[in-house]
Design goal:
Chain B: This is Putative circularly permuted ATP-grasp superfamily protein. The complex is a heterodimer of chains A (about 325) and B (about 475). With about 325 residues, chain A is an all-alpha fold. In chain A, about 75% of the residues lie in helices and about 0% in strands. In chain A, helix 1 (about 5-35) packs parallel to helix 9, helix 2 packs parallel to helix 4 (about 70-75) and helix 9 runs antiparallel to helix 12 (about 225-235). The mean pLDDT of chain A is about 90. The chains are: A mainly alpha (about 325), B alpha+beta (about 475).
Chain lengths: ~325, ~475
């Protein structure tokens, strides 16, 4: 397959996955912001979290000066001027799909094209009119549909593998960032008895729901979510589809099956990362310091992304 | 001036022509709200599928839909056989002409075409002189534009031998009609066209001496107005859609960059004009092509479809000679007529043109897309006088033709159904044999009275049916 084609397929699915994750992030923050805030005011710091996670806080402040609920929501979701907005993620995904429409099935193309056409009409209506939760649901649903169309229709060749690679690397990165942000907010004292406080309960539950892992947590741990257990679930459990371990396992399998010799560095790196996660336990992670461990992992994801790029996406 | 139009569906007495009777019956029986609803459905489907084109000069790069009309253009099979034979004959002669022109130039030596008409032409490519092409084929894919005059006679308006487009609309229009109105296809025998991509791939493969050559489609990129078509054809043929930057030349061989390393390319179906193919040989500031491609081509290591330098044969100044080419190379009489053309470079023809400017269409020989031309009946006397001065100053740059009346076909318009002018572009493939799928792209001028069918000027398309004659 052409390197440029592989690049577009990879970024098509990365951007779509990113859009889905942004919607998940926004959804949880929006619902938490509506809850009574323990003396912290109007829920603005909750709404600001998506900006912190996506690294767009400075850009927002430069443009709007101060935090304002409606402006944050618009900036994050629909602002065409914000390169990291959900709107622009879908635009980029659709644009990449357009560039490779010869290599994806008609079902996939029509799905992503229809998503983009509807996105534009939602942007015209505005979020206030459409509804924040409804919008987040819509983005997730469109992403699910596209994934379904992909899995159900495309041939299991390179194209499929690069699409999957883009999905998993983006998803792993997102899970790491979301976990880190919640952990920082709840602080180290989340390990003491207050951990069972209502605030911690809602925070961790919201995170689990954002990552569609609430049911898995309930089934596996049968108890209130606590930092250590949530971290174990989201980092180390290979049977939870949005966990770091699960994403690494998928990527490791995909890269190992790639033809050609130019992928050796990427193949070795992903195998190392997979082993690092597979053969550790959560106590070891906390001994190291959860925050530091996550930051290192985010950095490793970045290195893996670069290795994939130089191996396949810009190959000569 | 009174002009009578040939209507494809109704004869001069308003009677429905036999090959449209089945459709007319269905149209009369189907409630208008169902038809309106299906038309909306068609728009939605085209939009969802992203079957669009982009207008140049539109900074937004807005993707537009080409309007699709649900009333088909229908041609009886017996009539089509004549058109088909005429197109094949014409393209064969044009390929023979190109091979001759870039080798012995017998036709010039025989005095049939004045040498300056072709050798001084901008589209004549010196680099092709003496180069032997496999099967001697230059225009593997040709689009022949046909119109019908008042009495229904078919005329060739122009030959497109460079990178003719529109075939994807021909195929998508058919797909749409079959999806919206399957009952029409059950009721009569309409010749299928969906195998075009398959024929195209066969043609491209047979353009290379190799057994199983690696074929690619070369596109200028996603901002090109015909990008949809490039992607469509690559997908339908199952070959790579490449841009110039995806390929490189090493040791006079062409390779594409893939995830598994470099892969050699044997046949390039290029949808890029000559001038952009190779920055080393042609336009140096173009980033669309592949440096070194011409050298690889001249070494015989890669096939280009179409060949470089075909533009010299579809130039308007060469067009008047095509009937002579058919006689010269094939020893046959032309099946399809040329539109009568006055060559202004000839003094007696010039004086005729000058005397009849208000009735004629005058075109620049090097122009295309409707630029630099005078439509006499539609021009003011001031415009005509201004044009007269330009014509006198440089007669050789112009040809003149009578204003054709173009046949009409019933078409859905804002308030009901009304006749609109149409043309027809069949696509002729030349490989081991010269052939075409039954039909072509019918373009329709949607504005009342307009003769301009170009999509950039508000033209639409119709499905084109070749209907087996009923035995009844």
């Amino acid at each position: 397959m052409l390197s440029r084609t592989a690049d577009d397929l990879y970024w098509m699915s990365r951007y779509l996955e990113r859009a889905e994750n942004l919607a998940r992030t926004l959804d949880v923050s929006y619902s938490l912001s509506l809850m009574p805030q323990g003396g912290l005011g109007d829920g603005l710091d909750e709404l600001a979290m998506p900006l912190l996670i996506s690294g767009t806080m400075n850009e927002y402040l430069k443009r709007h000066g101060q935090l304002n609920a409606d402006r944050i929501l618009h900036f994050f979701a629909l602002d065409a001027e914000n390169p990291a907005s959900l709107y622009n993620c879908l635009s980029a995904a659709r644009s990449s799909a357009h560039a490779v429409r010869g290599r994806i099935t008609a079902d996939m193309w029509e799905n992503i094209n229809a998503t983009w056409l509807e996105m534009r009409s939602i942007a015209e209506q505005g979020l206030g009119h459409y509804g924040v939760s409804r919008f987040c649901e819509w983005v997730k649903e469109r992403s699910h549909l596209f994934r379904g169309a992909t899995v159900g229709t495309i041939m299991r060749s390179d194209a499929y593998h690069f699409i999957r690679l883009g999905t998993f690397i983006e998803r792993a990165d997102n899970t790491l960032r979301l976990l880190d942000a919640r952990y920082k907010l709840l602080g180290e004292d989340s390990e003491d008895h207050d951990d069972r406080s209502a605030r911690a309960y809602y925070q961790w539950s919201a995170l689990l729901r954002a990552l569609s892992s609430f049911e898995a947590f309930a089934e596996l741990y049968r108890g209130s979510p606590r930092a250590r257990k949530v971290a174990e679930l989201l980092l180390l459990r290979a049977d939870v589809p949005r966990s770091l371990s699960s994403c690494l396992e998928e990527m490791q399998k995909i890269l190992a099956g790639m033809p050609g010799d130019n992928g050796r560095p990427a193949q070795r790196l992903v195998a190392e990362l997979d082993a690092r996660v597979r053969y550790t336990v959560i106590d070891e992670v906390f001994e190291h310091g959860l925050h530091d461990w996550i930051i290192e992992s985010i950095d490793q994801m970045h290195r893996l992304g670069n290795a994939i790029h130089s191996a396949y996406l810009e190959a000569a | 001036m009174s002009r009578s139009f040939y209507d494809e569906m109704y004869d001069a007495n308003g009677e429905c022509r036999p090959h449209y009777q089945e459709f007319a019956r269905w149209l009369a029986e189907t409630p208008p709200d169902i038809l309106a609803q299906r038309r909306r459905e068609a728009d939605l489907l085209f939009h969802r599928a992203g079957i669009t084109f982009t207008l140049y000069g539109d900074k937004q790069g807005t993707e537009r839909l080409i309007p699709f009309d649900t009333i088909p253009r229908s041609i009886p099979a017996s009539e089509w056989r004549m058109v088909e034979a005429g197109c094949i004959q014409r393209v064969k002669a044009l390929n023979l002409f190109l091979a001759d022109l870039y080798h012995e130039q017998r036709i010039l030596k025989a005095g049939i075409i004045p040498p300056e008409q072709v050798l001084a032409n901008d589209c004549y490519q010196m680099a092709m002189q003496g180069l032997d092409l496999y099967r001697d084929i230059y225009a593997h894919i040709a689009g022949v534009d046909l119109v019908r005059d008042g009495d229904g006679t078919y005329y060739v308006l122009e030959d497109n031998l460079r990178t003719p487009s529109g075939v994807s609309y021909m195929l998508e229009d058919r797909k749409m009609m079959m999806r919206l109105f399957p009952e029409l296809f059950a009721a009569q025998r309409i010749a299928p066209i969906n195998h075009y991509p398959n024929l195209l791939l066969e043609t491209l493969k047979s353009a290379s001496p190799l057994d199983n050559p690696c074929v690619v489609v070369l596109t200028p990129g996603r901002y090109n107005s015909a990008y949809f078509e490039h992607a469509f054809l690559a997908r339908e043929m199952g070959v790579e859609l490449v841009e110039g930057a995806d390929m490189f030349v090493r040791d006079d061989k062409v390779y594409m960059r893939t995830t598994a390393g470099a892969v050699q390319v044997d046949v390039i179906y290029r949808r890029l004009d000559d001038g952009f193919l190779d920055p080393l040989a042609f336009s140096a500031d173009s980033v669309l092509g592949v440096p070194g491609l011409l050298s690889a081509y001249r070494s015989g290591n890669v096939t280009l479809a179409n060949a470089i330098g075909t533009g010299v044969a579809d130039d308007k100044s060469v067009y008047p000679f095509v009937p002579d080419m058919i006689r010269f190379y094939l020893s046959e009489e032309p099946i399809l007529s040329n539109v009568p053309t006055w060559q202004c470079r000839k003094p007696d023809e010039l004086s005729h043109v000058l005397a009849h400017l208000p009735e004629l269409v005058v075109k620049e020989t090097q122009g295309s897309g409707g630029y630099g031309m005078l439509v006499g009946p539609a021009a003011s006397s001031k415009e005509i006088e201004a044009f007269r001065a330009r014509l006198k100053a440089n007669p050789a740059a112009y040809i003149a033709q009578p204003t054709l009346s173009l046949s009409t076909c019933p078409t859905f318009v804002e308030n009901g159904i009304a006749p609109r002018h149409i043309d027809l572009r069949p696509f002729v493939l030349s490989g081991q044999e010269t052939r075409l799928v039954p039909g072509g792209l019918t373009r329709v001028a949607l504005r009342e009275g307009s003769l301009v069918v170009n999509s950039s000027q508000g033209g639409g398309t119709k499905d084109t049916w070749i209907v087996e004659d009923c035995e009844c």
